[in-house]
């Protein structure tokens, strides 16, 4: 045997010995396999710990032991699969949120690059129409419901004001029976909600009386069934059963509108006992992307846009946090090391319309006639700088402590190194929206060649500020405080906890921070608080503690990723301020599925999502595979496949474990990658589009595209003109720095079946590129065809 | 020479498998896992230890002062040895079937849920109620309300070979 183990010259001696040792063990293992093949091991092995079992070797006992041993292994394998599936969904969800960064930067890019001469200007100003300058009274007149008639044939619920318990109960029942509330009542209800919310402070302070327990719910995301389940188990909101709802009521699920109406109805009924916190999804631009806008327009084709506009106002009026007994802080996302509740209490939250839209100037400053909108980007970091430091434009470090950056190993962590020759992204960093991966860092094509000074001057000009030193200083003050307030709010709505100490920008989400246990301690102690309750992240059991029990995540949308993926939970908090949990899982079908079936089903969804991700990276994958296949045989080893995929996708997943599910035909540990990639593209197109990379680009950005298209379609008619379609594409392609020729776009437009003169139906366009999207909970039950 | 190459490859591949499985449960990305997940990890790698054997392994993996966590530096060599040694070998299908037949004293070809529950929650290394419920949900034929163990075994072992 020794003769076979000739040491390789490259291994160190220790390694050689180690390998040799393992080799022996392996051989022994093989040997014993042969030896004892016939012997029946019924678990009566003679080890120290088995002496107990040695005594009772009766057949039934031995049989039971065997079955137990076997089943536990099976259950463990299921658990492993479930965990992997979970990780897949989380990775994809968070990496998908990086699209937000792209979107934000795209808007900024648009604002930078339009010229007054070009027709693109109209396009952009359409998107950023500053119609918010009206007074509230004006708006109330706009939102008036009084002229909307409810026809006699209407079979849905009726509302009359002031609301009573029975009216609201009937409303809930109606929704349970899948009825829809008439637009008139919707607007009426929303209008009253808006009036009420305007009176509320940024932070609600609640007292738990001696005998009541407060119920706290996390993300609902349009899952009406879960909300109803909570009400069923816990009771409707009332003076005896106060509730806090911690944001993210909408998006993803299909009954977001109903959830809002129910929550607002209870809010109007019991304004002192129902508390709503804003979440990062209470944001109209996020809604464009994640389904709420679509839902509203689908349910209310005539009045949808009015409803959405009113909701935009309501969202910005939602309080940002709730504090119980001055000891327990409840807010949606989290905190950062700079979080200051006093500051948050004082700011004007209504100015903060969307995380993805620059802060507008205060109305008081006047000068609002010049509404070439979006020219006012008042929170650029540069305005806070004095002359000397203009050369260095540090990234983030002004606003983040960037302590140690011990934090996350996620992708690219930017250190506070001063970067000269600004890119537009750096100048945005004051907005609190962080993070570009190094790959996506554009030097802002077209902006190169200018010195920093010139650049600053240009920006100030665009922002409408004069160059005189006085006003510079004045505006510098205003702007810095804006930047600070902005950051406070974004941190509250978007941050996530991490286990390492410190506070670093949340690159994955594109907004807020990752904050560590030291920050929790410092911030909570500084405010004399005991516990932070937040939501924002899906948890398998519906809740999870971290940071030595001082941070609690609560999530109330069960089956969030797919049927069987997770439970929802809510908290009951008594005067002792010790949280008690109740878990639940909606959907009768979950309970009927065996464990194996529900794991399998969720797994299929996750795998399909993963396949889509792989597909969007086809070109990059091919390039990477070819590195391992210099002879262009078309075949690579499974090992190299895993390495390549990990590198390209940059999703930290157990690729080897997943390989069996993603690559079905391997031979002798190798696979034909071209063949495999072809199999991935299960695209249903109504058209013949030869250009594969256009397809990939389209698919990769389809969510953003949809958001952008919907923004262009300001009258929400579902149609945009051919010219607008072209313009958007041109802008997107120059932003992405990929070449998408006008001809290709024209071909695309032609091949889509549009039959409205010179207009494209957005829905048709998006449908034409639909991959089977069951992972987004679109309601299909069938697994994807393999 | 070819043998050596294969041996090294097998060893390396084994260690990669172990590393991947470990990573799935390394929630903090700091090369530690909760000691309570060790059983799941080892079993998912294809081992079939009894609970008692598992406790021995855990005892070996724990620190002198148990922290509740197991470090990768200890995990890897121990588990590599276990896998290469094929220490906790799978249970062949026919053996499993025999075990069920032993419990089926009247040789009816099926077992009542209550019977199986009694055996598995009282004998050997007893199941928890949760484990029992999970197994029953997969094993019990919904129409006849009995466990047709022959079908059950073939269905489950087919799954295993995926």
From TrEMBL, chain B:
Pfam families: EF-hand_7. It comes from the Eukaryota. Residues 13-48, 91-126 form the EF-hand domain. GO terms for molecular function: calcium ion binding. InterPro entries: EF-hand-dom_pair, EF_hand_dom. PROSITE patterns: EF_HAND_2 (PS50222). This is EF-hand domain-containing protein. It comes from Phoxinus phoxinus (Eurasian minnow). The lineage of its organism: Eukaryota, Metazoa, Chordata, Craniata, Vertebrata.
